[in-house]
Design a protein that fits this description.
about 250 residues, alpha/beta, Metallo-beta-lactamase, Chain A, 6-stranded mixed sheet, 7 helices, about 30% helix
Length: about 250
């Protein structure tokens, strides 16, 4: 059994294949854009995709689905499925709203939903034997955290979702973008979001406006990170302010 990992290009998603070369079967996590980088790796290893796991519905993670018309099952959160079907992408979909377990040649893959975060339909793939977590865009190494509110994402809920994710026994995490990282780096993001939440909540309680809050939040000890899709720290402080003002969403 081996893991094949590919980064599909600058700022594009990472994709991962769990390959059983003895049986020729494979499980793909995020086939990516409608490009053949992962398909070529699957063909080169003479693998037959048994299942695909979609961490969420964004094009850079899911649009390659159509390259695998013979796949046995596509595991997806119900909210992500609705968005994929609205774009004309089809399964065969198997919905995961809590957790589901796959087994390939004795290797277990746990597919789990921990709550609203980057979108309202983020799944993760956990390989307990390897202590490896595939987190999609719930974690992006080296970039400012990013949520897509148009897809139901919520920065306030992202921190809580990361806390639940951190309860898993993993050592390494493959995020949706950037390099593979260690568990401590995921913890650092959760701590960063908690510090932001605390500062914004304090300023909100003091009657600061959104603009004043963006200007006054310091986040000492947390150096600014590069942005992904132009969502930097100021945008995240705004989202945190709006989320705290509106009240936390209830995860579906």
């Amino acid at each position: 059994m081996r893991v094949i990992e590919r980064e599909l290009g600058p700022f594009l998603a990472r994709a991962l294949v769990l390959a059983d070369e003895a049986s020729g079967e494979a499980v793909i996590v995020d086939p990516g854009f409608d490009v053949e980088v992962i398909l070529d790796a699957v063909r080169e290893a003479r693998l037959e995709p048994r299942a695909i796991v979609l961490t969420h519905a964004h094009l850079d993670h899911a649009n390659g689905l159509g390259l695998y018309p013979g796949v046995g099952a596509v595991l997806v959160h119900p909210n992500a499925r609705a968005r994929l079907e609205a774009r004309g992408l089809r399964g065969p979909f198997v919905e995961v709203s809590d957790q589901l377990q796959l087994s390939l040649a004795g290797e277990v893959l746990e597919v789990r939903y921990f709550g609203v975060g980057h979108t309202d339909g983020d799944l993760v793939g956990f390989f307990p034997k390897r202590k490896l977590l595939v987190a999609g865009d719930l974690y992006v190494d080296g970039f400012e955290p990013f949520v897509d509110t148009s897809y139901g994402g919520d920065l306030l809920q992202l921190r809580r979702t990361l806390e639940r994710m951190l309860e898993l026994d993993f050592d390494e995490v493959v995020g949706g973008h950037g390099e593979p990282a260690k568990k401590a780096q995921v913890r650092a993001v959760a701590d960063y979001l908690k510090a932001m939440e605390n500062e914004v909540a304090t300023l909100l309680a003091q009657g600061r406006t959104e603009e004043q809050t963006v200007a006054e939040v310091k986040l000492a000890g947390f150096p600014p990170l590069p942005t992904l899709l132009a969502q930097g720290r100021s945008a995240n402080v705004r989202q945190m302010y709006q989320a705290l003002r509106a009240g936390a969403k209830t995860a579906p």
